[in-house]
Each structure stands twice: as C-alpha cells, then as structure tokens.
Write a structure and sequence with these properties.
Radius of gyration: 24 Å
Low-confidence stretches: 1-16
Number of helices: 18
Bound molecules: flavin-adenine dinucleotide, NADP nicotinamide-adenine-dinucleotide phosphate
Strand content: 15-25%
Mean pLDDT: 93
Helix content: 25-40%
Length: 584
C-alpha cells in the first residue's frame, strides 16, 4: 500500500499552494461568521469558504414560503455585541426568513466580514500534513490553501436529503427542495402541486402553497405534532423592555437546559386531575410554539405523562380538521416531541380547504415517478410540480461531503462509519487542530442554535488563542476521553423519550445511516460547565503537541461570559443524569 505521507507530498508538489492561512473556516452561516470575527480579533489571518452566494447559511438556502424561526426573535440572535443587540429591530415575534437573512447581511456589513469570505466555493477536501502540521484544503474551484487550524462551520441541517425515488428522472415537471429553494421564488398559481414530507419545513410551507396552487397533494409518511405559533407583529414595548436589560434574558436562557427562556411548569403531568391538567395545556397552547413543551416537567421523560400531551394535541387536530378520516390520518401516534416538535400557522386548518388532499404513504410508500406524477401502489397522482420537504442528512451530512483525512491518512467518514465520534462535539481524535461548531455530541440542535454556536465559537477561539500564545503546535482529543464522551452522550440520551423514535436526531430519516442519538441531551448549562472545566484544567482530555496535557499550561484565557448559572428548578432527569455521570 502506498505510504500516505508520500502520497500527500506528491499531491502537494502537483498542486500549487496559493496561500497559507492561520485558519480556514468552512461555511458562512451564523457559526462561520462569528468564528471569522473572533479569529480576526486575535490577529489571525483567516479565510472562509462558503458554497452559497452570500452569508446566512440556513437562511440563505431555505427560502420556501413560510420559512421562519420558531425560537422567538429576541432570543434567536447574536449576544456577543451589545451595540448590535441594541440597534437591530425585529419586526415579528418569530422572524421570517428574509428578515433573518437581512440580519445576517447586516452583521456581515457591520463587522466587515465579506472581504474574508470566498463565496460560491465548496470545500471538497481537507487533508492534514503531519510533516508541516497544517491542513491542505482544496475547493471545487481549484483553490488549494494551507491552514494551521481548520474550523468546520458546515451546519447541522445543511445537507439536503433527496431520497432516490424510482424513475424520478422521468418526471417532466418542476422539482424543488425546501432547503435549496430558488432565490426568485416560485409561482404555483394555477398548478397542481405535490409535496412530500410533513416535517417542520412542510408544515410551514403547506398553508402558503395551498393558498396559491390550484391543488395541493400532501404525501405523509409519518404524521407530526405541531403547536400553533400565534405569530404576531413585534410588540415594541416588549422589545424595548428586553433591550433595557438584554444580558438578564441571555443569562436566564443560558441557565435553561434548552438554552431558551420560556415559562416552565415544574409539576409532573400526572399530578393534577384531568380537568386541571387540560386547563394548563390550554394555557400553554394559547401561548403557542415550542414553549408548549414546558407545560409539565416530565413530558419528555415519562411515557404516561407524554401520552397526556399527545392526546391533548390529537384532540386539537380532531377539532380543527373537519373530515374525520383526514383528521385521524393527521393524528400522530408516536411520542409527543420525540421527533422535533413543529410550530405552525394554520397547518391543520389547511386540510379543510377543497383544493388540499392528504395521501397516507405510511404503509404503501411512493412506488415510482413517471413523466407527470407518481404512483402509490397502482394509484396514479398527477401534478405539475413537486416539492421535496424531505429534510436533511442531519448533523453529519455536510461533513460526509468533504474528504477529511487526519493523522496517518485516516478518513473522518471511515472513523464515523458507525456513528459520529467526538470529544464534546468540538473535535475528534486523530484530527489535530480541526474543530467543529455544534458538532455531533454537543447540545447544538437541542438548544437555541445561535446560543450553541456562540459558546462553541468562543471556546474554539480561546483554545486557538491559548495554543498560539503558548507556542504549542497541535491540539487533538485523547481517544479514551472521546470514547467516554461518546458513551456518556448515548447513556444520557436513554433517559429521554427523544431517543426512542425514528427521527433525524438518530439518523433514522435516511436509509442505511447508523442509528445513534447525535446531539447531547444533558442540557446546555451542564455542557457549558464541562467545556469550561476542560479548558481551565489545561485542556483535560486533549493531547497538546501529541502529549497528554498535564494541566500546567500557563494561565488559560477564556471568554468569561460563558460562566453560566444552572437554573436548578428546571433541571430535567437528563440534566440530573448528566450531572451525576462519572464522566463529568
Ligand atoms: P448553516 O446555517 O447551516 O450554515 C452552514 C454553511 O456552511 C452553509 O451556508 C453551507 O452552504 C456551508 N457549507 C457546508 N458545507 C460546505 C463546504 N463543504 N464548503 C463550503 N461551504 C459549506 N435553529 C434554531 O435555533 N431556531 C430556529 O427557529 C431554527 N429554524 C430553522 C429553520 C430551518 C428551515 C432550518 C433548516 C434550520 C433551522 N434552525 C433553527 C437550525 C439552523 O440551522 C441554525 O439555527 C443556524 O442557522 C445554523 O447556523 P450554522 O452556521 O451552524 O449552519
Ligand atoms: P424533517 O423534519 O426531517 O421532515 C422531513 C419529512 O420528509 C418527514 O415528514 C419525513 O417522513 C419525510 N420523508 C423523508 N424521506 C421520505 C421518503 N423517502 N418518502 C416519504 N417521506 C419522506 O425535515 P424538515 O421539515 O426540513 O425539518 C428539519 C429540521 O429543520 C426541523 O426538525 C427543525 O429542526 C429545522 N426546521 C425548523 C423550522 C422552524 O420552524 N423554525 C422549519 C423548518 C426546519 P418521516 O417522518 O417518516 O421520516
């Protein structure tokens, strides 16, 4: 077998290295943007490669009708710059996609980020050169650069899942994926439209597509729970009040397992009698959105408690949807909130429209496409356009698209074949000076994402700073610590009902993927504490320059705003399990 080192040397000789950087960042969503800002502040020479044509990531790509965030705008924003917090005004309780994209553009402008970002350029490989201790990074536009540090800010939900439906190639109509929506919008007026999928993206877009299209046929494999958003114009007094003491809201949010602040009822669901319980559910339903999960403390941990929420939500559907057969098909039978809970504006009501029909494909999957439609068993459905709201190869999909080779030419794809393996979701052993933002094994998608991103970026920036400052060359996790962390992530996930169903959290939405619960469910504050401890103990669990850190690294510097105070009142069984686990 050819020696990988020699092979790399040959590759290096054959490909001109245009430039060398201190750090290369892959991706210019909220993660890559803030990472660039932090590393530049440290005086490093940094370049970002972004496959899209501008900043914004998720909000650049997902332009489907109705796309908006489902974490309140006042919390779904950067907290690192007080001036930015004060000057940006949100117009709605839940910001729509165009506004979030404008916000990303505003941030890019304010911090002059675009000058260091190369757009429309996809990184295709990143190979560690052990002789030079740097990464050789190549793109689909023939750039080859080197960087001491490589940060993957590639996103958890950025690799569109396009199932390989039989004979799709024969279909002559238009095809769209919600996660890669045309920038000029789509006019469905007068068209028969099909949509495949009933996750969050579908649930947001269906009401709007149905308003425009001649007809809409919804192909549903699994029914989903959804709570109304009750979105509204932003209350200017509310915005003003939060801005008067923004840091208080941020600190409160960070103390919560979800990293989001919302009213939380400490009672277990089975404690009150049914009438009282339903009254509480009604109150939380009227408040709307993801905070519904705070109606009782044990909804995601106790099956009987969960069933009360599930039945409450099903009864709402039965009351909204007039055709009882359709209503029953729309009633989910799985655990409430096990798949990511959806938030909607008129989703179930849409099925009362004459031009909308629901096709259940739970037992009979789509057989094949042909030139003007598709077949379910022998029944043909005809349409002009099809929308794939089929989600993403979540958490690891965008990693898989890059050929990442670490020490001894180990491939990341190979290493993660049976599921992702990281230490704290920040780094992976055998891949020195390679960091990931909101990687698998970190709270990421289970917390408000911008919060998760900022905490990771600050940790990585501090780490890079400490490494550079102390004259060290490399840092990478120790395999045994990584193994313990992976085991811990899995163990804690078992405490939650969320680990029990076929969701994208476990990779089950895509055939052939290993079933592993990928995000860390031990709660945001406990996780942050762990990250701080690892750093202040001199990068415990990491090899520095290939040697175990002995904790004697001179005075570690770290971003103090990540000293979080756990809100003990809202600790869930997962938080308790996380806190009591030996790994912590
Ligand atoms: P992304 O925004 O995904 O950015 C990653 C970027 O990396 C992309 O622009 C991509 O083009 C680029 N990239 C990937 N691979 C490469 C490569 N090889 N070369 C070059 N560039 C590459 N989170 C919440 O907390 N609240 C919400 O309400 C919410 N709503 C969402 C709605 C939708 C429709 C989706 C899909 C996700 C939502 N999320 C939400 C999660 C959302 O992804 C995060 O909030 C956040 O935007 C992620 O930022 P990011 O920078 O980590 O990743
Ligand atoms: P998703 O939740 O994974 O939903 C994909 C849908 O497509 C599911 O209904 C799935 O069915 C179906 N599907 C996939 N493959 C299929 C196949 N081969 N045949 C038939 N149906 C198939 O994806 P998403 O809706 O894009 O959302 C992904 C995540 O992005 C969300 O969970 C959320 O975190 C985020 N998001 C948030 C918002 C928001 O409100 N802010 C909006 C959109 C997205 P099964 O369930 O049976 O797999």
């Amino acid at each position: 077998m050819k020696n990988i080192r020699n092979q790399k040397k040959e590759e290096k000789q054959n490909t001109p290295i245009a430039t060398s950087y201190d750090a290369v960042i892959v991706g210019a969503g909220f993660a890559g943007m803030y990472m660039l800002h932090r590393l530049r502040e440290l005086g490093l020479k940094v370049k970002v490669f972004e496959a899209g044509g501008d900043v914004g990531g998720t909000w650049y790509w997902n332009r489907y009708p109705g796309a908006r965030c489902d974490v309140e705008s006042m919390q779904y924003s950067y907290s690192f710059c007080e001036e930015l917090e004060q000057e940006w005004e949100w117009s709605e309780k839940y910001a729509p996609q165009p506004e979030i994209l404008r916000y990303a553009g505003y941030v890019a402008e304010k911090f002059k980020l675009r000058s260091d970002i190369i757009f429309n350029t996809r990184v295709i490989s990143s190979i560690f050169d052990e002789d030079e201790n740097h990464w050789i990074i190549s793109t689909d536009r023939d750039d080859t650069v080197t960087a001491r540090f490589c940060v993957l800010a590639v996103g958890c939900l950025s690799s569109a899942n396009r199932p390989a439906f039989k004979n799709l190639i024969k279909f002559k109509g238009q095809q769209f994926h919600t996660g890669e929506w045309p920038h000029d919008g789509v006019d469905f007026t007068g068209q028969d439209v099909a949509i495949i999928g009933t996750g969050s993206s579908a649930i947001q877009s269906i009401p709007l597509i149905a308003q425009q299209a001649k007809s809409l046929t919804v192909f549903q494999r699994t029914a989903n729970y959804s709570v109304p958003a009750w979105n509204s114009k932003m209350d200017s007094e509310y915005q003003k009040k939060i801005k008067a003491d923004y840091s208080k809201l941020r600190a409160q949010a960070r103390g919560r397992p979800s990293g989001v602040m919302f009213p939380f009822n400490f009672q277990p669901a089975l404690e009150p009698r049914k009438e009282e319980r339903d009254k509480i559910y009604e109150e939380f339903w009227d408040r709307g959105g993801l905070p519904f999960l705070g109606a009782f403390s044990d909804l995601l941990f106790d099956s009987d408690a969960n069933e009360t929420a599930a039945e409450f939500a099903r009864n709402k559907i039965r009351r909204i949807v007039k055709n009882q057969k359709t209503a029953e098909l729309l009633c989910p039978t799985n655990v409430f909130g096990c798949k990511r809970l959806c938030v909607d504006s008129g989703y179930f009501e849409t099925f009362n429209k004459e031009n909308v029909r629901l096709v259940d494909i739970s037992t009979n999957p789509i057989r094949e496409f042909d030139k003007d439609g598709l077949f379910v068993k022998d029944l043909k459905y005809k349409f002009d356009s099809v929308v794939f709201a089929t989600g993403f190869a979540a958490m690891t999909g965008s990693f898989e698209k890059i050929n990442i080779l670490g020490r001894n030419g180990i491939s990341l794809a190979k290493k993660w074949e049976a599921g992702p393996r990281t230490y704290l979701g920040l780094a992976t052993s055998g891949f020195p000076n390679l960091f990931m933002i909101t990687g698998p094994g970190s709270p990421s998608v289970l917390a408000s994402m911008i919060q998760s991103i900022e905490q990771h970026v600050d940790w990585i920036a501090d780490c890079v700073n400490n490494i550079v400052r102390t004259g060290a060359k490399t840092i990478e996790p120790i395999t045994s610590f990584e193994d313990d962390w992976v085991e811990h992530v899995t163990e804690v996930s078992k405490v939650s009902l969320r680990s029990t169903c076929s969701s994208w959290y476990v990779g089950a939405n895509i055939e052939g993927r290993p079933r592993v619960f990928m995000p860390y469910i031990g709660g945001f504050p406990i996780y942050v504490d762990r990250c701080n401890d690892v750093m202040t103990r001199g990068y415990e669990g990491f090899l520095v320059n290939g040697e175990k850190s002995d904790g004697k690294m001179p005075e570690i510097r770290f971003t103090k705003r990540w000293r979080v105070t756990l809100d003990k009142d809202v600790m869930s069984p997962a938080d308790v399990a996380a806190r009591n686990a030996p790994v912590l």
